[in-house]
Design goal:
alpha/beta
Length: 226
């Protein structure tokens, strides 16, 4: 079983659909569920600890424990550091960082019982490039990277690997309001100077879930390179 957060849209939906195509049982978690999705959906707010715990109670009743977890749920807020509204900062940190932590805390014990598992958390190229206007977003994702590296060490003895994927600009809802010139400036700072797609990101996630990648843990993989 593969659990994907943020599965109703964007990268989360693309990843969930990719694994469904590969014949996997996917459970997609999101704030709002949609009936037309080709995988099982469960409504949850990952930033709310009690909401996450309720979902885990449900997952314990499945025949198979979760083997893979993708924490793709995330939001962004584009503001200069000194002008970012406190409420916006709080929502970004609670969803991106606390949501990732709560999900890992809840799902990892199920993986430990099974003796194997792989977790992929999502960061962003904005962390490495320190992009202007993305201070709160970058800070939340930098926290995800540090948490993931530490968690990888803590879970290694249980046969569980933890990694991060950090894409550049991908055509999803997170880029709404970002001008083409802004996107191009970011792309020009990548090693591979082109805008990547959701499918490219899915390729990296799929690689990290492959049994041949069991030696990879505690790493941050930048789609496009920095």
């Amino acid at each position: 079983m593969i659990i994907v957060t943020g599965a109703s849209r964007g990268l989360g939906r693309a990843i969930a659909e990719r694994f469904v195509e590969k014949g996997h049982h996917v459970v997609g978690l999101s704030r709002q569920t949609e009936s037309d999705l080709p995988f099982e959906t469960v409504q949850v707010d990952v930033s709310a600890e009690n909401s996450v715990k309720e979902v885990v109670k449900r997952l314990r009743n499945y025949d198979q424990p979760p083997a893979f977890l993708v924490n793709a749920a995330g939001i962004a807020s584009m503001n200069l550091a000194l002008m970012a509204p406190p409420g916006s900062i709080r929502r970004v940190v609670e969803t991106n960082l606390l949501g990732t932590i709560f999900m890992c805390q809840s799902i990892a014990p199920l993986m430990i019982r099974a003796g194997i598992g792989s977790i992929v958390n999502f960061s962003t190229i904005a962390v490495s490039l320190a992009l202007s206007g993305e201070s709160a977003y970058s800070a939340s994702k930098a926290g995800v990277e540090t948490f993931s590296r530490t968690l990888a060490r803590e879970l290694s003895a249980h046969g569980i690997v933890v990694n991060c994927v950090a894409p550049g600009p991908i055509a999803t809802d997170l880029l709404r309001g970002v001008s083409p010139s802004q996107i191009n400036r970011i792309v020009e700072q990548q090693i591979i100077r082109r805008q990547f797609t959701a499918s490219d990101v899915c390729d990296v996630v799929e690689l990290l879930f492959d049994s041949k990648s069991r030696s990879l843990t505690g790493q941050v993989f930048h789609v496009g390179g920095v």
